[in-house]
């Protein structure tokens, strides 16, 4: 039985690649593949992980690859998958110390402003030399800096930030 705890958000399908139904996957900054996925990958469809068998996998760049998924045999079918998030089995993630904090822990957290208004859900955490940036599912970029942090509620998966005026307009 698939448990959501056994998979992790690795990237997003950004485009159809060929007439035969291949798709291009761009990985999140927080994931650097050590090996190409084989077996099954999971696409989040209607908030549920749906397995797809990988027929072929080819490295495209250091942060992307081309996948041929079973049952996706046309350009039109591949285009239907654009924008879907891809999840991989945690066994494909590079080993890291269990004591080491991983910034991607915040992916999936809701972001609230100083008025307790939800402004989005963290889709990606981008490393920046000055501080991290939270990318929401709508593409908004929000600085994740200690000066703006009000509090984090890990149980509720919520981040409360003092968001500068005009940042989200």
Describe the structure in your own words:
- This protein is mostly beta strands and 169 residues long.
- It has two domains: 4-92, Elongation Factor Tu (Ef-tu), domain 3; 103-161, Roll (SH3 type barrels), CATH 2.30.30.
- It is 3% helix and 45% strand.
- It is built from one helix and twelve strands.
Mean pLDDT: 82
Estimated helix fraction: under 10%
**Uncertain regions spanning at least 5 consecutive residues:** 96-100
Question: In what range is the share of β-strand residues?
Answer: 35-45%
| Class from helix and strand fractions | mainly beta
CATH superfamily of the largest domain: RimM
Summarize the structure.
It is built from 1 helix and 12 strands. It is mainly β and 169 residues long. The chain has 2 domains: 89 residues, Beta Barrel (Elongation Factor Tu (Ef-tu), domain 3); 59 residues, SH3 type barrels (Roll), CATH 2.30.30.
């Amino acid at each position: 039985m698939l448990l959501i705890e056994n998979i992790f958000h690795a990237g997003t399908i950004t485009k159809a690649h060929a007439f035969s139904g291949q798709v291009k996957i761009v990985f999140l900054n927080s994931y650097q593949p050590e090996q190409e996925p084989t077996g099954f990958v999971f696409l989040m469809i209607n908030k549920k992980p749906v397995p797809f068998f990988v027929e072929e996998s080819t490295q495209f760049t250091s942060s992307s690859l081309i996948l041929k998924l079973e049952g996706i045999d046309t350009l039109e079918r591949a285009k239907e998958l654009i924008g879907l998030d891809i999840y991989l089995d945690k066994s494909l993630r590079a080993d890291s110390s269990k004591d080491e904090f991983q910034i991607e822990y915040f992916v999936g957290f809701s972001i609230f402003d100083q008025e307790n208004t939800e402004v989005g859900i963290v889709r990606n955490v981008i490393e920046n030399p000055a501080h991290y940036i939270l990318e929401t599912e709508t593409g908004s970029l929000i600085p994740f800096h200690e000066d703006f942090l009000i509090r984090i509620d890990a149980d509720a998966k919520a981040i409360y930030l003092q968001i500068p005026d005009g940042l989200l307009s």
